[in-house]
Amino acid sequence: IEFATFDEVEGGPVYPAGDPHIERAIALRDAFGPFWDRAAQLGVKIFLRTDMPTLTPALRDWFTDRLGAFDTEDPRLWQTYTEALDELYAAEPALSGILIRIGEGGEIYAEPGWDYYSSIDVRTPAAVRALLDAYTGQAEASDREVIFRTWSVGIGDVGDMHTSQESYRAVLDGIDSPALIVSTKYTLGDYYSWLPLNDTLEIGEQRRSVEFQSKREFESLGAFPNDLGPEFQWAMQTLLAANPRIEGVWTWTQDGGPWRAGPMILYLKTGFWQLSELNTRVAAAIARDPA
Fold first, then answer.
1. pLDDT band at 267 (very low <50, low <70, confident <90, very high)
2. 105-113: long-range contacts at Cβ-Cβ below 8 A with a sequence spacing of 24 or more?
3. Cα 50 to the chain's mean position, in Å?
4. Per DSSP, what are the bridge partners of residue 48?
5. From its phi and psi, is residue 106 left (phi > 0), alpha (psi between -120 and 50) or beta?
6. What span, in angstroms and rounded, lies between the C-alpha atoms of 179 and 143?
7. Taking the CB of residue 268, how many other CB atoms lie within 10 A of it?
8. Can you give the three-state secondary structure of the chain, one letter per residue?
9. Is pLDDT above 70 for 257?
10. What pLDDT score was predicted for residue 273?
11. How far apart are alpha carbons 154 and 50 in whole angstroms?
């Protein structure tokens, strides 16, 4: 929502004329637009990823005033977001779509000094379906795509949709938009290599993408080497044999933990430094007392 002015939504603009949210959205589009345009010229698809709902205090107040309550099962709420997305696509035609996560969020992801924040308010199958109906309809009409992540930290009635076939079906059965791609981690839970293969990737009528992580937090983001290439290969071969709707993979090259939580590569360097320092101290201790 940092890129959208919300000027053209039904019910009137969200922000008054001259509001810094409007000026910031236009400035951000002016700054990033040339990169998106160049990427599109090179044949690269550009997706903006976001938690949903993402809000500002003014936007939440606007929803409450117009709708009477902030209700994620209300299709009108999602219509406002998709109308803002129409505005953004018109201003930045190089954009290919949006990637949405509903199962993790909150003010831990907020940037200091900005009043944009997310909340974990999409907690029922009805709310997820209202969201996806709005976004897939908008994507089909605008010739874009929607990537929906099933990842969840376990909150609400859809909190286990990432690991439960029953919950996956309750949320997604019957939603067969050609503009929808459902993205799921390959393990039955978070990225721990000892977990079973995620069998929710074997079901569903939707287009699917499989998520892998190259630098895992529990391995100090690569400081403790663990080549999972053969496991990833086995996972893909197994899942492709079970589900022909899998189209590809999303490999996290540096991400992990809260998005943009810090300079990821510096975490790696810090991990190496800590390991090297530990080895130095152990060697010194052995020299002092070989026993």
1. very low
2. 105/51, 105/54, 108/258, 109/51, 109/258, 109/259
3. 5
4. 98
5. left
6. 8
7. 16
8. CCCCCCCCCCCCCCCCCCCHHHHHHHHHHHHHHHHHHHHHHCCCCCEEEEECCEECHHHHHHHHHHHCCCCCCCHHHHHHHHHHHHHHHHHCCCCCEEEEECECCCHHHCCCCCCCEECCCCCCHHHHHHHHHHHHHHHHHHCCEEEEECCECCCCCCCCCCCCHHHHHHHHCCCCCCCEEEEEECECCCCCCCCCECHHHHCCCCEEEEEEECCCHHHHHHCCCCCCHHHHHHHHHHHHHHCCCEEEEEEECCCCCCCCCCCHHHHHHHHHHHHHHHHHHHHHHHHHCCC
9. no
10. 34
11. 19
Tokens at residue 88, please?
């953004």
In single-letter form, the type of residue at position 202 comes to E
The pLDDT tens digits for 64-123 are: 999 999 999 999 999 999 999 999 999 999 999 999 999 998 888 888 889 999 999 999
Angle at 31 between CA 29 and CA 32, to 5 degrees: 70
* Other beta carbons less than 10 A from residue 257's beta carbon: 11
- Whether pLDDT at 260 is above 60: no
Give the lowest-confidence range in 131-135, 187-191, 260-264.
Answer: 260-264
